[in-house]
């Protein structure tokens, strides 16, 4: 990118954290920026994208009916992230459950869809797409004890950015499947990370919004992690990105420096895809 006035310059990244970061040209896959992109991080809710891919595939093939009502086994009832656990009528349709996962990373809807599709079947999605170090790994749990799988999902910046690039070009199973997943991700309300600097309306950015940008993304958060993966299009360029930060082994809560770096990266992406300075 030498000599390109729109080059993506990464900020200083706090060395107390494990980082895995990659930014790609969304068309040809060219690497625009990276930092330890092959390091595996815990990715919290980001692995739910693989669940959405499997649900979209089954809807397209007719294996699932979009109007089928979900069931929620008692052993998989969870709270925290999402809205469904607070709703009076929790037997929403499969299509609406997937939308809840895309919009608010709904844990209860995730577990219901994961139980419907089967954990082993969803675990197989990532390797079937060619990803060796990235996957959804387990149900969402109220408590993760030592006898349970070590994380709900994991991945690398390189593979997660490539996943978003392939979704953007319609190369995840099919154009129809990719478009379904992107449509669910269009509703994501969490713009606190990389997307913060895009200045989009957090609740209404399905259509082109500020400076003509279109964002499709998924985030993940835990007490020791922040992850944001996305596909961002503007009038000048399109990028696919993944930024993962983990600080599990730190005695400090490092979310502030993690988010500061993510915001700085987001500003670089905004300038790159719009071809403009901040205004």
Automatic annotation (TrEMBL):
Gene3D superfamilies to which the protein is assigned, alphabetical: DD-peptidase/beta-lactamase superfamily
Species for this entry: Leifsonia poae
Classification via Pfam families: Beta-lactamase2 (PF13354)
GO BP terms in the entry: beta-lactam antibiotic catabolic process; response to antibiotic
MF-aspect GO terms: beta-lactamase activity
Beta-lactamase class A catalytic domain sequence ranges: 21-244
Xref: PANTHER family: BETA-LACTAMASE, BETA-LACTAMASE-TYPE TRANSPEPTIDASE FOLD CONTAINING PROTEIN
InterPro entries reported for this sequence: Beta-lactam/transpept-like, Beta-lactam_cat, Beta-lactam_class-A
Protein's recorded name: Serine hydrolase
Signal peptide: none
């Amino acid at each position: 990118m030498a000599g390109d006035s729109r080059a993506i310059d990464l900020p200083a990244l706090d060395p107390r954290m494990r980082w895995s970061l990659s930014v790609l040209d969304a068309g040809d896959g060219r690497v625009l920026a990276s930092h330890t992109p092959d390091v595996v991080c815990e990715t919290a809710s980001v692995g739910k994208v693989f669940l959405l891919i499997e649900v979209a595939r089954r809807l397209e093939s007719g294996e699932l009916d979009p109007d089928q009502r979900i069931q929620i086994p008692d052993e998989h009832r969870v709270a925290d992230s999402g809205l469904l656990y607070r709703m009076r009528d929790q037997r929403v349709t499969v299509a609406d459950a997937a939308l809840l996962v895309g919009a608010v990373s709904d844990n209860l809807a995730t577990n219901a869809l994961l139980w419907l599709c089967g954990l082993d079947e969803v675990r197989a999605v990532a390797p079937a797409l060619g990803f060796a170090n990235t996957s959804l790994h387990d149900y969402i749990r109220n408590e993760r004890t030592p006898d349970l799988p070590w994380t709900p999902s994991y991945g690398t910046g390189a593979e997660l950015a490539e996943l978003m690039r392939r979704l953007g070009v319609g190369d995840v199973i099919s154009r129809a499947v990719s478009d379904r997943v992107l449509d669910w991700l269009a509703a994501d309300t969490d713009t606190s990370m990389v997307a913060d600097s895009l200045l989009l309306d957090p609740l209404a950015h399905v259509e082109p919004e500020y400076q003509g940008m279109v964002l499709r993304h998924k985030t993940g958060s835990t007490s020791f992690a922040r992850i944001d993966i996305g596909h961002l299009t503007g009038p000048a360029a399109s990028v696919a990105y993944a930024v993962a930060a983990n600080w599990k082994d730190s005695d400090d809560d490092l979310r502030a420096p993690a988010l500061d770096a993510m915001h700085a990266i987001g500003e670089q992406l905004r300038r790159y895809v719009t071809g403009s300075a901040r205004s």
